[in-house]
């Protein structure tokens, strides 16, 4: 942004690494263009500053060295061109240069994960990338947890390297939520398994005032409280971890409010009859598929009083109407709350869209894995290298 404002991008070749890894389907092409829309401002900013723009991204997980049409960024180039209102030229075989980028041009460099050495952050490849440009801009928050040649290595070798507006915006929003939150800070961590979110739960138990757990994760916590969970998804071996998380939260003056009632069914199906019961009354052949209305009310009250909300994961099987009530109530409470709210992860965004609260969430992250790793308190390598570079360590 500053480079543009200072006029330093005028006449320069700018290489933008974006995250344009969008879901594609045969019928409509791009099924959700959020990431393309989120990446357009960086391109526009560079164009307005008089630069020639190259933009690249990975798409899917292709085999290195093997180009297949389904891995092509062609539909993304088309969508970006529509959004910018200017042509976007697609360039294949671009690693060794040999193509022109004039001021005002937008060139989409074909799927960078096809390049040999991209995924393993190969130094020779990173140097080649660096030679293509005058300014490297990393705007790919969604890929910031990957140390690959286009997200990491290039930042060492490009003449200038900096963060783009989306990356800066994401880091600001996450920082606001977790590093200097308005209290009470409430996190909702839900999903199928404690094991996949254990580090996040542990990291957040130390920071938040209320740690709301949901989905299969909550079942393991209900078990830790001494109740049976029938046939529900749960991880009995992680009961000691669940107890430790509750104890850690309490030791810091926080709490892990667990469900008091749940919605159960005899099978995992959209048409399965639903029954609401207290957690003490879960039968041996029951599966817990949602939180109950009393729990939804308690959590809703907590969320409405929050200063900051971090949301990752639906609390029930919201795809099935009979078990959508809990997630809907959470979504509505997030929407009604005056808190600064941030949400991320594919399922969470699907729930936000289903309950039409997109405009009521303060910040929706474009990151999946990157958002989770930030919540875990991990260093994002693509961000760390830019910080190193800013300190002059790679000038
Ligand atoms: C994502 O969709 O989370 C990012 O684009 C990263 O994709 P990856 O997991 O294939 O690296």
Describe this structure in words.
It catalyses: (2R)-3-phosphoglycerate + ATP = (2R)-3-phospho-glyceroyl phosphate + ADP. It is a single chain. The protein is α/β, with parallel strands linked by helices and 395 residues long. It has 2 domains: 2-163, Rossmann fold; 171-375, 3-Layer(aba) Sandwich (Rossmann fold), CATH 3.40.50.1260. The chain is 37% helix and 16% strand. The strands form 4 sheets. Strands 5-6-4-1-7-8 form a 6-stranded parallel beta sheet, with helices on both faces. The chain has a 5-stranded parallel beta sheet with strand order 10-9-14-15-16, sandwiched between helices. Helix 7 packs parallel to helix 9. The relative contact order is 0.11.
Distance between the ends: 19 Å
- The largest beta-sheet arranges its strands as 5-6-4-1-7-8
In the CATH hierarchy, the architecture of the largest domain is 3-Layer(aba) Sandwich
Low-confidence stretches: none
What is the H/E string? HEEEHEHEEHEHEHEHEHHEEEHEHEHEHH
Fraction of residues in helix:
25-40%
What is the overall pLDDT average? 95
Total number of helical segments?
A: 14
Q: What small molecules are bound in this structure?
A: 3-phosphoglyceric acid
User: How many separate structural domains?
Assistant: 2
- CATH fold-type name of the largest domain: Rossmann fold
Biggest β-sheet: count, sense, barrel? 6 strands, parallel
Q: Which class best fits the helix and strand makeup?
A: alpha/beta
Binding site for (2R)-3-phosphoglycerate: 35, 113, 146
GO biological process, one term: glycolytic process
Subunit structure: Monomer.
Binding site for ATP: 197, 319, 345-348
